[in-house]
Amino acid sequence: MEPSGRTKWVASILVVGYALITIIPLLWIIATGFKSPSDAIAYPPKVVFDPTLEGYVNLFTERTRATEETLAQVSEGATWYEAIVHDQGMVIAGPSRYGERFMNSVIIGFGSTALCMILGTAAAYAFSRFRVPLKDDLLFFILSTRMMPPIAVAIPIFLMFRSLGLNDTHLGMILLYTAVNLSLSVWLLKGFIDEIPIEYEEAALIDGYTRFQAFYKVVLPQAATGIASTAIFCLIFAWNEYAFAVLLTSGTAQTAPPFIPTIIGVSGKDWPAVAAGATVFLVPVMVFTILLRKHLLRGITFGAVRK
Amino acid sequence: MAEVTLTGVSKSFGSDTALDNLTMTVPDGSFVVLLGPTGAGKTTTLRMVSGLDRPDSGRVFIGGLDVTALTPAQRNVAMVFQQYSLYPHLTVRENLEFPLKSPQLKTPQVQIDRKVNEVAGILQIGHKLNNRATELSGGEMQRVSIGRALVRNPAVFLMDEPLSSLDAKLRADLRIEIKNIQARAGATFLYVTHDQIEAMTMATHVGVLDHGRLVQFGTPREIYENPVSIYAASRLGQPRINLIPANLFPGAPENATEIGLRPEQIKQGEGESSLVQRVERLGDQTRLHLAFKDHKLITVTDAHTELKPGDIVPIRPQNPFYFDANGARIPPRTTT
Question: What are the ABC transporter domain coordinates in residue numbering (chain B) (predicted)?
C-alpha cells in the first residue's frame, strides 16, 4: 500500500530531524576549524563568527615566537598564510608532521582495506563454492576472532611485533588491521557470493573460460556491490582505529588519530587546529563512500536466472 | 561435430544415485532426446558430457577422445541451461559475444559481429541487442541463452529444456529453427525435454532414462511402437497409453498382468461394450473418455463424432502391448 501524504510528511520530519541531530557535532567540528582560538572557547558558544584559516595554517605548520624586529623584517612580501602566522606574533619554522601522519593513515587504511578485500573475496569464494574440509568449523573460528575486542590481545601483539621488528612500521599496521577486519569481510562477502547463482560460472566454464577467468569476468562484477560495502566497513575501522595506533606506532608509521590530539600544543589550547585536523581527516572516508555509493545503492542484480 | 559416448558412467550425490552405470552412444550428427521424469538422470547426463560434473566411475568420450579428465572449456561443448543463466551485468550483445571472445576461441570482431547478428535474426532478438540481460522477458532470456550456444560451432550441443518457458508459437518456430541448424551444420545434439512433440519431431534417437539407467534407446518411432516396458511406453503418446489388467480382454499371454492400449490400439465398433463418460473436442481430434469394467480409458475418435456422454461404444484391443508383473514387455507372438 502506498503510504498516505500525511505519513510521508511525518516520516520526512523524523528523518530530517534525526539527520540534523547526528550531523550537528560534525558541523560543530567543521565550524570550529574556521574559528579563532578565542571564538572556539567563547561562552555562550558563537554560531556566527568571523571565519579564519588560522586553524588550518597552524595545523600544517610548525611555528616559533619571533621578536617585533624579526616580524617587521619578514612581513615584507609575506604570503597569506605567513601573514596569518605573523599576526600571532610568530614565524613559520617548517611544515608540521600532520601531512606525514595523514599519508600514513592513507597508506595503512587503504593498504589494509585492499589486502582485506583480496584475501576476503578469495576466502569467501572458496567457502561459498568449494567443498572445504571442516568448512563450518573454519567459518566459526574466523568469526570467533571477533568475539572479544581486538585490543584485548594488545600485549601479545605488542610483544610479537617487537620481536618481528614490526613495531612502528606500515607493514605491521597493515597486517594488523587486515587481521582484525578479515573475519568481517569473509563473512559479509560470503553472504554476497552465496547470492550469486552458480549457473553463471557454469555457463562461463562452458563458454570456454577457466575457473579463474569465470571468477574474474562473471563473479567479481556481480559481487561489486558487496565488495564495495564491505570495503567501506573495513576502511572506516582501519581509518578510525586509535588504540593500536597509540600503542604500536610513535614515529614513522604513526597514523593521524593518535597524532591529532597532540596538535593542541604546549602553549595555549589550539582547538581550531585540532578541529581542522579532524575535518581534513574526515575527507578521504567521505570521498571513498561517495565514490562507492553507486554500488551501495544499485542493489543486487536479480532476475536473470529463473528460480 | 562429433560422436559422444558414455561408458559405464555412475554418479552419486550423497546417498542419491543420479546415474547408475550408464552406457550410451550419441552418433555423430544425431539429435538425441533424453526422456524421463524428474530425477531420472537427464540433466546429470548433460553435466557429465559438459564436464561440469565428473563421473564417480566410467568414461566420457567426445569424437573418440577420452575427455573424462578435461575441463568444460577444453571439451568444446555448448550448453543451454534450464535456468537461463544470462550474465546480468552484460547486454544481450555482450552475452552473445561472450563465448566467442573466450580465450579458447578468440574470434576476430568482424566474425563476432556477423555471427551475433545472424543468430539474433534467427531468434528474433535483433531489436534487443543493446538491452541489459535483466531487462528481458522470460522468453527473450531463454532465446538469448539458446543464442549463446548457437553462435559457436561446438563438438556437441547440450540443451536442458531450452524451449520450456516460451509461448506455443515461438516454441513451434524455434523447434523448426533448431532442427534446421542441426540438419544444416550436421551438429550433434543431446537434448532434454518433457515435451512429447519436441521429442517426436526433433529427435533422430530417443534415450529413455529410469533412475539413472538407460532402459531403451532408439528412434522415436521404435520407442513409440515397440516399447520395452510400461515405463518406456508411458514416456510417449498423447493421450497417454491406457493400462488395464490383462484379463479384462480374452487372448492375453499367460504371464501377462497388464495390457497397454494406445488410442490406435483400441478398435471401436466391435467387441465389448464401454460407456462414454466425456467427449473432449480438441478441434483436429476428439478424445473419448470411456468407462470399461470399472476402468477408465482415454482414446481418440473421429473429430466430428456424434457420440455423447451416456452412449455405449463396443471396443476391442488391436495388436496391444502385454506387460508382465515387473512391467516388462512380453514380445508379441510372431504367428498373430
Answer: 4-236
